[in-house]
Design a protein that fits this description.
The structure is a homohexamer.
Chain A: E1 3-8, H1 15-27, E2 30-36, H2 48-58, E3 65-70, H3 74-80, E4 85-90, H4 93-109, E5 114-119, H5 129-137, H6 148-165
Parallel strand pairs in A: 1-2, 1-4, 2-3, 4-5
Chain lengths: ~170, ~170, ~170, ~170, ~170, ~170
């Protein structure tokens, strides 16, 4: 039985993340979507709890997928979960170099955990959480980029901010 | 049971290919190393039969790996073999764009076959069959770059060529 | 009145080329799709005449677009046509470097001709004439990648080749 | 009549921006240099008003160019201005991926606005506002990188800062 | 006699930096490792003094290498030291573009100072100070990535931080 | 005394090669421009003898530079010449990956020979021998891209070819 961990910030989860998760869920027996919960990093838009809730709703239809958070290195978390695979979604070349660096460093830290890269569908090639937040912040329509409940959450957050700066 | 196909020219198989094959063999139930046998392409250094023989010797210690040749599109071959996974080894960014193109085109041709990219160990990052041939052609030492029997075959070929051009 | 030249091999024209041509036709008064007719280069799959005929059929619905061939440098041809714009389609980063080189060299040769890069729709990001030929050569389906009459022409060519090698 | 918008931070405008603006002004009937005025982003070196003033002085000799600021998404602003073209300057490959992402996302948001990429002259290939600020901050000479009045403004700002930290 | 300056943040020095320093020390008569001491930049993990002390210990075995700090532009510092060479370590392609930009800008500022790029050994290709800090922050083992005394210093810093957040 | 080898095809030598050679000649005691004489590779435009003659004329003003040909691996040739440095000119990122691969493979073959990369002046960033030949083949002006006697040789060759195809 192969357990795979897909670690990311998921701030928030996009249709690109979902596409990678669905592909990975077909390949491995269990898939854990693992939110990086990093108190020392720059403040995310959504709290760890909010991100987990949105992800759970987004993957509710995938029986072998569960959602969790981690505060350690991704490989250490994977090891604790008896996972042998780290899943990463690849988009464009600049992504690639970063993933390469991480894969090689992770390999040094835990040689028995394999990094597996999947490529999201072409329509998600240029999609990222930051792009989604940028668009939503200026009132743009993110309907086709994230699940409906995430689009609603983004609208809520940015409407509140606008109120606050009035 | 997941069957995976790792298609390439393998002209000849290098330690980088072997590293990827060993990683893939741990992830999937069956792995098929599939040599592209393309009569219309530029003549390979080794015939399809020679390449297969060298590969069989190189993966003899991996029980769930077998070696085969294919003359169709990789996805079509995978489909014939009931495989649901295409394995690709990633090295550097220029590789990546080509793999991306192939993955997306393959996805259009056969949506149920997933392309899975693995990253060879860092020591193989800059290793390719062409680099190995270039070095061997000028009498350089390829001992650490390919299995011993492949190094011997390369020496044989280039010694014969030198004889011939005398 | 701005005349633009879109020079390429178009061997054969793909839906990606067509997408770029349609965008350019909206931006400039006249657009010339110019086939590079290079007798010293490696033999194309389709003759210059065949390529022109397929392109004419493909752009028949675009009133301000015409198709032509050229044997000189692209900037020289543009100059002969009183064009002030060279149109190029950008796909991925490796494309980009080549385009950059050409744009800068063209700028040295003819400072008053501007290179304008358009980005094909995301679904064509990884589409190229060579990929199309590769797929068609192995009997793959290219229906969504090229116009119907081009798909038919590709099928004809590769069926004949198969006959010939029997 | 084609109206084009060239949106950027212009913090401050460089000779590379100016080169792209001059090229675009020859291609389109009206060109609007549009300063991104983003209150939530990290504080720019120059205020929106200062950036606009420096840009107006820099493009005073170009009759069909005007300078403006915008607070929405670039495509939304373009739409308000009846513009059908977004102009972007390309320098090196990393630029390119970012531009690609933006072009594709903008295309989703407003399919009738075309992103047109121009390549600045080779001498500006490695020039950016951040590089200019870095050099000026350490007292380096930016005379050939920005218009004279921008060089003077940079000197003024960094001299004041030095005073302040004494 | 050729004096070379190798400027970087060295926050902290890694085995990759050391590898480049050792290569450069063989090529040039004197090599100065120069720590960028930038009060206006984001706070480094280690103070300039701590970074210098760790570097001195790391290069104690290299007789023609000394360690210093600089607060100006790198080329200006090199000029003050009568150096004619700036040494840079290259890793992957994204590095490259940044180095290219710096090399060209430095060339404009001081045409008689040559930028020389060396490539660290393959095992350091994906190693950076930030990666090291990321790993150490989450309690990962950095023994093979930095000299022993640097590994100890990292452990000390992050243990203190953990204490503090309890 | 440091001897450096700058190996390339030099088919023909361009102003970009010359710029790198001049920079390297200032850094090292002796610089050897070494033409790759590869009988099995695709036929160069100029014979090894012609390339050497053109290079000798181009570097006649550089006292510590000599021109030679080699038929082995570059590192082997360097070793025979007691050289400890291989010089390479870097232009754009795609170059870089290839150079990286070669540098790492050379390092495996001869650990005591250091690859040193220099960056040609920005005006040569997009200049290559193939671009020069492409332009000359179509009658374009290459005056600013190569030394005058090389421009003359290119004109001669392509005029003869034109005669021949009449």
């Amino acid at each position: 039985m192969t357990i795979a961990v897909y670690p990311a910030s998921f701030d928030p989860i996009t249709n690109g993340h979902l596409d990678v998760a669905q592909r990975a869920a077909r390949l491995f027996d269990t898939l854990i979507l693992a939110v990086a919960d990093r108190p020392n990093h720059k403040t995310p838009l959504f709290s760890t709890e909010e991100r987990i809730a949105m992800m759970r709703e987004a993957v509710a239809h995938l029986p072998n997928v569960r959602v969790d958070a981690f505060r350690t290195l991704a490989v250490e978390y994977a090891d604790q979960q008896q996972a042998t695979v780290l899943v990463r979604g690849l988009r464009a070349s600049t992504d690639f170099e970063h993933e390469f660096q991480m894969a090689h460093i992770n390999h040094r830290l835990a040689a028995d955990i394999e990094t597996v890269c999947l490529m999201a569908d072409q329509q998600y090639t240029f999609l990222s959480s930051s792009a989604v937040k940028e668009i939503a912040a200026y009132g743009g329509d993110v309907t086709n980029l994230v699940p409906p409940h995430v689009a609603a959450a983004l609208r809520r957050v940015y409407d509140q901010r606008k109120e606050a700066t009035r």
